[in-house]
Sequence to fold (828 residues):
Amino acid sequence: MTYASVASAPGELVVIPSTCSECAVHCGSLVYVRDGVIEDVKPNPAHPLSKGAFCIKGLKGPTGLTYSDKRLLYPLRRVGERGEGQWERVSWDEALDYAADRFAATRETYGPLSLVGVCNNANVARGVAVVMLLRSLGSPNWMINQDLCGGCRAVSSRATGLDITRGEDIDNARSALVVGRNSYEADPIEWIALKGLKKRGGKIVAIDPKNTPVVSIADLWLRPRPGTDAALGLAMINVMIEEGLYDKDFVERYTHGFDKLRERAREFPPSRAEQLTGVPAADIVAATRIYADGPSTFVSGHGIDAFSAGVQTFRAFHCLVGISGNIDREGGNRRVKKPKGFLDNLQVVHSLKFRLPREIEEKTIGADKYPLWAGPRGWQTACHNPSVINAILSGAPYPVRAMYASGANIVVTYPNTPKTVEALRSLDFLMVASDTMTPTAELADIVLPKTTALEEDDIRLQPGGPLITMTQAAIPARGEARNDLEIALGLFEKMEARGAVTKNFLPWKTEDEFIEYLLADSGVTLEELRRQGYATYPFALENFEKFPSPTGKVELYSEAIASVGVDPLPNFVAPARDHSAPDVKQNYPLTLLTGDREKTYHHSRFRDQPWAKKISPDPRLLIHPDTASAMSVTDGQWVRIETAGARGSCKAKVKVTDATPEGVVSTGMGWWRPGSMLPGSGAFDVNINAAMTYDGPWDPISGSVDSRGVRCRIVAINDIPTDAAHL
Amino acid sequence: MTHVVTENCDHCRFTDCVVTCPVACFHGDDKRIYIDPDTCIDCSACIPACPVQAIVEEFDLTDERREWLTINAERSRVLPVISSKQTPLATADERRRELGL
Fold:
């Protein structure tokens, strides 16, 4: 395998320009290596996009994970009962033979569709390897966590044909509209850009129920009732149109459905939005005027994603961006710029060369109900996760009996932990690849050791640059760890020997070959990426032709959404909790927000890292002083969080603060206690997903469940729970 | 928005923080150290490094501690950068005990 410090002399310090991939921001990094050992990881101040921006998990995380004493270094086979924690070390050959016997048997008995893969997403090479393995075995079924993450915004952007991401050109904007985004914790590049905007006199409008660092530097803060942001977006459209602030030329030439949108927006004058959201009408007008005084960049985040009205909420803001004309202009939201000939990971997934027959892909679990999410027309083509969990447990619409999960800790990250665990326990076979033992890996029959970001190569397109950036394998893999492509190829070979493959969708023998495939004849070379860690390329703004939608225009009226029988215009959908039965309202008087970002953590990762635990030792529950007093809880007290209809609950430590509104409590996600004796290593105990349901209501387009904005109650725990006492 | 060194650094000056800083934003005099808010990138790497929990994110500052924003900004402007670990003050261990850390 290739790694960047391979040619160095003994004792020589090598500095490798790379890209941090501990979260999706991808800041430019410098990796310091001597004698095949990482000495340090630092920001790369010469990086054209991140310009030295970085955070603690980028500095400490890669080395911490790579050299963790809990690192998995060899394949393991379960010897006791499932989940008992009894393992034997086996060779790769034994592990893959054992796995292939079972995958092949399941495939023979129940058919290829009974196999399912799990990864984070297919925007990264790791995910593509899992997808191509499953497709090679004949199954279109693979799960991603994006319905709980960036899925609603991606589906909305795609349905609108906008072709934008977020915050691509804050450096040249006069104002920024930041919706549901705590850039301070979530995105160092964006945060530094917003501070720069502020410093040069630009304006920031923040929309967030919570007081965040972004709010603290904002010129105007709109604080909606959780889950009502779509009404704000529609009222801003209303103001923009009624005051004539929209870009008439752009709207006329490059958008589709403006008259219908105007009609819809008329239903949302600021006065009505005030009633729905609690935001003063005058502030809605003022926010619209700031945004209209462009160029303005729209910055959006997780706060308005991952809930059952997520797509419509994003549609409202994407339509606002659309009529403002702040598209592909300096200081606006830039369309994704690719070098000609370059393929990104998701394009490979969609490429006709790598597809199963359409009639098979249409059987992707969830494709019948959410065709713009799952199956051949879907954003990534992946499954609707809760339907897969149900299929595992019920056998309907067909049996799903064997799973390969790579780099995804779904026991912690999927809602309804008890149900996920029940489903995994009921499988005929479970193989998990991971760099550390997780609550998900604990339930596996075979656990495979995976490379960390310091030991594998990956490239991606970063729209904000725009850049192609590379994360480089800086050192040889520790122990017997392998990267995802190697694992996929290894299992493919074993399955092929058993006559259990459908077609070879894994034509790449090494990561280099895969990267070369993506770079193709783009003019960007692997050599350049290895030398700099990134590559720039020429691009032009003001491309208003051929927006990626059925009409080739920015679709304010979405033909794609119309085609699946859902409201093609953005609309306000009242939070599901507003319709709860009276007894539920009475018993669960609070609104729960989840997903608070912390720089120290990324999803369920880094929970065993000493530097992270020092900053953030316990799950927190933010609560307003008046609510705390009404609930008789005090700062530092432990409570149990319970939501209506959930099977489990979650413990957290109260932080009394007016950062969250009265009646609304707010917490993070991804907590577990690595190495503890708790069942599931704390996944049932301190993990908010133990207190949530995955059973709907679901967004009619993306299938996202309400992962926030749900009713809850809190119960004080008078004794400090033993799991917290270890700290 | 920045990070600031608060009163817990007085009589300590452990300087473990300066080694973790990726952008060399720490400045110091004989008594204690300060963060240059214009250089700080809010990465938070220094927070767990400090043995006496002296470093606080601006967003988490209590009202009575907000004066440290000005003190850090003004002092860092006139003092030299410190980027390598130095011997703590003789009173450091005693102070740490006093703080209960």
